[in-house]
Task: inverse folding
């Protein structure tokens, strides 16, 4: 029973004893939501998280977080088609974060500083796993298996590791020094590398099964797809990938005057640019897919990276999109021209999609060579019967038609986890990706426009096939870019909730657990201002039970 | 990061906050009350060396129900119409005692625009070294939501309902800033809870002034205005972005600074989420005319105070409360 | 020091001697001279004090409320309309138990407009919770003012010092203005236990629910009743220093065996004393001077009236539709006495009407009537009133 004071005065701050939290119908909770960049990254990176570390000035920590998913950031920072940037919510406000530039910066910094992966070496009696194929899928699988404490032996048919990274990516996109440094660091974690071993020729699947407790197959798609036009094939036909490989390894390429490359993917574009750099007069690229643009749906667009397409156009490659080759115009066995026609992929009554060409739209293009770059397929003679075996796992181009470096890296990681679970007798891990936080769940009022960090790109006249065309960004730009990140779904300690609570019910915690804020549920009335004003959507209101 | 409870002791945390909380938790304001937030921000910006004289109103009632008080600073409530006079007396006493403690008077719009206007005018005319802060929720909300001189034109309140013969408040919002300006005091400003850094900076400016200073803080009232408590900040922001509530600074009656509106929004965006303006969205000629009238009033503010320069500025309506990782703010 | 001085000026000197730090002033006749004099003292650096020239009486009393709450001795003065305008604040100050002293230069209340003296203004404020002390002459005004500060600060109740407007305020009398030393020996520095201080913050002016409001009112009522002791102590202690009494709670002048008593208040006591000497044929009449109206000195009143068979209560205010104010309270108090006198209650001198010596016989005539006069305005001239309004 309180005693009435003279003049009925009250003592300071005694209202803390009143638990106004009892009024609440909803309570706020801090809840991590997945950022779209993380959900969209095929390699399983969480760019939001490592960019946060960059913003806090912890480059090493950012890199270590990055390589917990993707061991080859200096490579992917250069060659990935960065779906993270397409998904980035900042793109709905001004320009998406240049995540690839951040990734590349961290990767290059690691190489320059000689950083090592934060891995413990596997124990000598760890279970043994074989990895077939030292392309991005195999390299990633080997790395993650080692990270998970397994003993790894990596086989590849070629003398050097890298797969398509080495054989099909020209130096102007991926310098050899970078490629070699990244792979060398990876192999140095204790992976036994066996080059010049082709499965099916030098070693059999059964031998692998005998020596190893699990096998990861990342052999890629080594066979070119069949290509002909109405059954006709020029006698000197070379496939795009073949030519590209030859140029990369030898440095020279057959001389052509006018060339038509069939295909819309990265190989087609890279070959086109290499040909242009080599001095070929006319380089045409014919594809039924569309040049990327704002009105073009993703399924219709060329599968090559838009920035590569743009650079190709600058360098003088002519792209004939939404067209296919109807007829080869031969003189004897040689091609003297192609008849192209408008083409589109349309849906059928059964829901499939099929290519339709439109009669009456034919044009003749004079070329002396036609090079199909329409993709590869799995060598099923070696690998055809292995589906369904419990100890055999597959990833990379051999698994799906997605055909991206980052996809392959992601496959390698997921396969390694699956292998670890399999060896431990655990059920396989779930595969669902969480839904990313929606743009409307952010509060954009608290951000202001800022220009995206643009990497320097060499002027067309200075470009060659040997020198890297796209530069990295400066450290200053890196920091600016990191600060542009919305931090979707993850707290950035902006203090908004702490500042705007009318009831002092958000407190700065700064505890050992790393918690930044705590709700005082004794006093929180559940008004929801904090949730509404959280710029990053980190606060969710839940009904009070 | 998941959302399990942290290991810190909440009661202890209240005493470890890196900001002075002159208004503490446990007050009885409605959830989402703009005035509570405003008062909290004001006392935070001032710090503990202050004496507050508070007029009757929501703020007074929800913070001082005996035996509990939410105030950490010395605070006195006398009556509805005399906070500035009480503050004048406190200021004179402190002057005689040689104590530098600042005196702040606070009141709602009822106590400032209407019943306390005389007392305020006297205090300003005598240029007492007092900062007067008016929390403007545009009505006598404590008594249940009744129309005051500050209630905007066409707003519905319990004493200005809409119906067959009426479209809410008949009269215009009293131009208090002009009245304050006529007193030629060293500093007067408007602010809003939507822009806490700006508000805190203005409070500090007001405190530093030797002489009278006045601050009008726009404070949404979820119950009185008819909107969800969660939207209080958003609505306060829209009031500024539509030009309906200009954010300006005056020195000796002359406007010296006006927060630029980067992208002017139509007034309907501000009005629509509030139930007190619902009647303006019905499909009648009277409603359309009143809606247009309000748009004209907002446009007039923009013209009069020069709220658009056509360029982005670092403290304009889009940039004044940009957040930064780690929580740094310019004020 | 003895000197002829206008009542207002004397009070101003008394206030200045008490070392106030904040004074608020708003002009209204007939108190204005007090504040003018104080302003002059400040301008001549004879008083170090903040004078706030406020914009209304409401603000005047509010400003001194603030000043006292913030730890400074404060003072203001007003009359009639100004006192009434202060109504809300007077209740507020008493409820908050803030020590303050205010001079009420008694004046009639409009309508009709009158600038002249009666005591309606302070009488209608008797329920506000203030101590009310009435002065019979300018010396008492000086002494009571000084005592008032001490009483206020010890009881934590505000004190209204009432002096008849014009009759006292504008009249030259020979008055002893005490020395600073005398006042300093009597009145210590201002100290208010609940003052507003950032080093010990408290919240003043809270909302109190039905659960505790009754107790708050009870506390105020008890405090006022107990204040009688402080009022008596202040008068005694000041008498030791100055050699003068101001009449404690109630003064009695006349022989113990007088059968008739006249009870009144304020400056009219002087008139009644002169009249008693002049009209000596009426025999012994006890003159009972009420000094403290609040707290109402019930016990001392009973003692003063003991042995009287007739008591005339003469006041300069009334409760329209009811009757006398002091009269009603006297009747209530004496109803407990074992043989109360017959009580005749008169109002006179309203709106500044002169009260000549001749009023004395008229009052005594009433004691000879068969029926006691319950209440009458003794100096009304109904010839000045239309028939239907008499």
Result:
């Amino acid at each position: 029973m309180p005693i009435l004071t003279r003049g009925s005065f009250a003592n300071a701050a005694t209202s803390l004893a009143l638990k106004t939290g009892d009024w609440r119908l909803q309570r706020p909770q801090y809840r991590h939501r997945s950022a779209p960049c993380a959900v969209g990254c095929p390699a399983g990176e969480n760019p939001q998280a490592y960019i946060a570390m960059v913003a806090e000035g912890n480059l090493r920590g950012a890199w270590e977080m990055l390589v917990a998913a993707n061991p080859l950031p200096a490579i992917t920072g250069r060659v990935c088609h960065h779906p993270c940037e397409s998904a980035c919510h900042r793109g709905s406000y001004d320009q998406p974060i240049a995540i690839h530039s951040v990734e590349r910066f961290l990767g290059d910094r690691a190489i320059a500083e000689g950083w090592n992966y934060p891995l413990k070496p596997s124990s000598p009696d760890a279970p043994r796993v074989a990895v077939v194929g030292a392309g991005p899928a195999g390299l990633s699988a080997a790395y993650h298996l080692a990270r998970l404490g397994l003993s790894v032996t990596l086989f590849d048919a070629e003398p050097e590791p890298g797969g398509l990274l080495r054989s099909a990516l020209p130096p102007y996109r991926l310098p050899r020094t970078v490629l070699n440094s990244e792979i060398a660091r990876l192999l140095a974690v204790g992976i036994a590398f066996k080059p010049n071993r082709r499965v099916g020729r030098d070693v059999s699947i059964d031998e692998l099964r005998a020596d190893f407790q699990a096998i990861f197959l990342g052999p890629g798609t080594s066979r070119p797809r069949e290509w002909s036009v109405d059954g006709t094939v020029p006698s000197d036909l070379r496939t795009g990938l073949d030519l590209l490989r030859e140029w990369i390894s030898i440095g020279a390429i057959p001389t052509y005057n006018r060339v038509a490359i069939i295909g819309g993917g990265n190989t087609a574009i890279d070959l086109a640019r290499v040909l242009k750099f080599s001095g070929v007069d006319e380089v045409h690229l014919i594809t039924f897919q569309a040049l990327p643009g704002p009105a073009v749906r993703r399924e219709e667009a060329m599968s090559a990276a838009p920035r590569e397409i743009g650079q190709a156009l600058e360098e003088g490659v002519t792209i004939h999109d939404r067209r296919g080759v109807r007829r080869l115009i031969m003189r004897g066995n040689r091609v003297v021209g192609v008849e192209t026609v408008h083409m589109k992929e349309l849906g059928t009554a059964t829901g499939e999609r099929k290519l339709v060409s439109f009669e009456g739209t034919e044009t003749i293009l004079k070329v002396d060579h036609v090079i199909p770059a329409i993709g590869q397929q799995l060598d099923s003679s070696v690998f055809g019967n292995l589906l369904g075996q419990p100890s055999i796992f597959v990833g990379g181009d051999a698994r799906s038609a997605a055909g991206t470096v980052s996809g392959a890296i992601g496959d390698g990681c997921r396969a390694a986890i699956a292998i670890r679970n399999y060896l431990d007798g655990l059920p396989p891990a779930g595969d669902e990706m969480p839904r990313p936080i929606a743009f409307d769940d952010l509060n954009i009022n608290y951000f202001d426009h800022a220009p995206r960090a643009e990497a320097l790109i060499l002027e067309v006249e200075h470009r060659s096939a040997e020198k890297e065309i796209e530069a990295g960004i400066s450290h200053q730009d890196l920091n600016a870019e990191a600060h542009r990140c919305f931090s979707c779904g993850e707290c950035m300690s902006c203090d908004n909730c702490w500042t705007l609570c009318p009831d002092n019910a958000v407190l700065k915690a700064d505890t050992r657990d790393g918690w930044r804020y705590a709700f005082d549920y004794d006093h929180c009335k559940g008004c929801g201002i904090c949730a509404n004003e959280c710029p990053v959507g980190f606060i969710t209101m839940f009904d009070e039970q | 990061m998941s959302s399990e409870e942290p290991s810190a002791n909440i009661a202890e945390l209240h005493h470890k906050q890196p900001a002075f909380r002159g208004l503490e938790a446990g007050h009885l304001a409605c959830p989402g009350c703009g005035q509570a937030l405003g008062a909290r921000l004001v006392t935070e910006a001032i710090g503990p060396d202050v004496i507050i004289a508070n007029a009757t109103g929501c703020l007074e009632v929800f913070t001082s129900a005996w035996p509990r008080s939410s105030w950490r600073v010395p605070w006195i409530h006398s009556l509805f119409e005399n906070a500035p006079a009480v503050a004048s007396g406190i200021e004179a006493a402190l002057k005689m005692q040689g104590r530098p403690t600042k005196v702040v008077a606070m009141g709602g719009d009822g106590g400032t625009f209407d019943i306390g206007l005389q007392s305020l005018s006297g205090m300003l005319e005598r240029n007492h070294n007092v900062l007067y802060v008016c929390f403007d929720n545009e009505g006598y909300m404590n008594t249940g939501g009744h129309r005051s001189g500050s209630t905007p034109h066409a707003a519905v309140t319990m004493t200005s309902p809409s119906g067959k013969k009426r479209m809410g408040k008949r009269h215009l919002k009293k131009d208090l800033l002009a009245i304050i300006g006529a007193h030629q005091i060293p500093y007067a400003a408007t602010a809003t809870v939507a822009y806490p850094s700006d508000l805190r900076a203005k409070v500090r400016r007001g405190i530093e002034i030797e002489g009278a200073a006045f601050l009008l803080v726009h404070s949404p009232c979820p119950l009185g205005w008819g909107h969800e408590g969660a939207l209080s900040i958003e609505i306060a922001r829209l009031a500024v972005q539509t030009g309906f509530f200009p954010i300006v600074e005056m020195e000796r009656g002359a406007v010296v600074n006006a927060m630029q509106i980067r992208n002017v929004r139509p007034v309907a965006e501000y009005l629509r989420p509030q139930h007190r303006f619902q009647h303006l969205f019905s499909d009648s000629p009277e409603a359309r005319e009143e809606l247009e009238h309000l748009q004209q009033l907002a446009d007039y503010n923009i013209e009069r105070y020069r709220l658009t320069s056509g360029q982005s500025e670092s403290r304009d309506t889009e940039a004044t409360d940009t957040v930064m990782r780690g929580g740094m703010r310019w004020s | 020091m003895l000197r002829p001085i206008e009542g207002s000026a004397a009070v101003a000197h008394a206030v200045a001697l008490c070392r106030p730090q904040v004074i608020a002033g708003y002009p209204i006749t007939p108190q204005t001279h007090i504040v003018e004099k104080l302003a002059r003292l400040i301008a001549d650096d004879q008083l170090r004090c903040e004078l706030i020239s406020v914009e209304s009486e409401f603000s005047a009393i509010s400003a001194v409320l603030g000043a006292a709450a913030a730890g400074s001795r404060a003072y203001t003065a007003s009359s009639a309309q100004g006192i009434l305008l202060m109504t809300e604040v007077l209740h507020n100050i008493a409820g908050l138990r803030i020590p303050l002293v205010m001079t009420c230069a008694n004046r009639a209340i409009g309508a009709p407009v009158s600038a002249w003296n009666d005591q309606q203004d302070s009488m209608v404020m008797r329920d506000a919770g203030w101590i009310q002390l009435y002065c019979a002459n300018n010396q008492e005004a000086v002494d009571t003012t000084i005592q008032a500060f001490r009483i206020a600060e010890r009881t934590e109740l505000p004190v209204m010092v009432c002096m008849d407007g014009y009759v006292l305020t504008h009249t030259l009398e020979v008055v002893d203005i005490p020395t600073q030393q005398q006042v300093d020996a009597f009145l210590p520095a201002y100290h208010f236990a609940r003052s507003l201080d950032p080093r010990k913050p408290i919240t003043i002016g809270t909302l109190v629910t039905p659960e505790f409001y009754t107790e708050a009112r009870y506390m105020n009522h008890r405090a006022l009743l107990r204040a009688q002791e402080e009022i008596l102590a202040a008068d005694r202690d000041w008498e030791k220093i100055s050699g003068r009494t101001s009449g404690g709670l109630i003064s009695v002048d006349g022989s113990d065996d007088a059968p008739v008593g006249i009870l009144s208040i304020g400056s009219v006591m002087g008139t009644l004393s002169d009249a008693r000497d002049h009209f000596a044929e009426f025999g012994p009449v006890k003159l009972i001077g009420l000094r403290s109206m609040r707290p109402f000195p019930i016990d001392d009143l009973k003692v003063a009236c003991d042995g009287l068979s007739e008591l005339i209560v003469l006041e300069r205010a009334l409760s329209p539709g009811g009757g006398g104010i002091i009269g009603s309270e006297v009747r209530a108090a004496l109803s407990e006495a074992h043989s109360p006198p017959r009580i005749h209650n008169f109002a006179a001198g309203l709106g500044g009407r002169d009260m000549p010596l001749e009023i004395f016989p008229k009052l005594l005539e009433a004691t000879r009537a068969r029926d006691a006069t319950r209440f009458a305005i003794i100096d009304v001239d109904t010839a000045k009133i239309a028939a239907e309004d008499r």
Remarks:
- The domain at 20-305 of chain B is CATH 3.40.50.970 (Rossmann fold).
- The mean pLDDT of chain B is 95.
- Chain B touches chain A through 62 residues (CB under 8 Å).
- The first helix of chain B runs from residue 10 to 13.
